[in-house]
Inverse folding.
């Protein structure tokens, strides 16, 4: 996969959609490529991480660390480790290669250097992450309110 197609792939990801193509080219040139044969583990839940991985080609199986069950299939365009680019968050899931996987690996140091040299890139990415956090927070509030309403509903049923 050439630079052009790698940039196009990054452009499709919400995290990088607003980032200028010239900056994405810099990111692609500064990133590593990873090839993982079928049947191998790409990374395991709990592994320390200071990079993001984007699948260019191939398919992976996302495994729940608690149950060992399959959570999802991941193909071209799937991204893992957005938070690792900023905070070095450990891997939350395990990814196994179903077929040979070719991936772009963006190291935290490369990403942070790009953001320090071009602050607008950092602001664009932080804006996306902030919106994602707002959605998660809203969804969590909805779930919490349903749990809070549950005992009240039980009391109302008992009164009937």
């Amino acid at each position: 996969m050439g630079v052009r197609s790698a940039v196009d792939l990054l452009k499709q990801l919400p995290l990088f959609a607003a980032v200028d193509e010239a900056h994405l080219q810099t990111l692609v040139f500064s990133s590593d490529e990873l090839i993982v044969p079928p049947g191998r583990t790409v990374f395991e839940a709990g592994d320390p991480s200071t990079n993001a991985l984007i699948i260019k080609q191939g398919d992976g199986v996302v495994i729940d660390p608690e149950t060992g069950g399959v959570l999802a299939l991941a193909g071209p365009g799937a991204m893992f480790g957005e938070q690792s680019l900023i905070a070095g968050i450990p891997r939350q899931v395990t990814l196994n290669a179903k077929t040979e996987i070719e991936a772009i690996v963006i190291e935290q140091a490369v990403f942070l250097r790009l953001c320090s040299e071009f602050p607008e890139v950092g602001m664009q990415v932080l804006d996306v992450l902030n919106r994602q956090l707002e959605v998660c927070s809203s969804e969590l509030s909805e779930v919490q309110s349903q749990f809070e309403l549950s005992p009240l509903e039980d009391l109302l049923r008992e009164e009937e």
Notes: The beta strands are 32-36, 41-43, 51-57, 60-63, 70-74, 79-80, 94-97, 101-107. The chain has a mean pLDDT of 89. The first helix runs from residue 3 to 12.
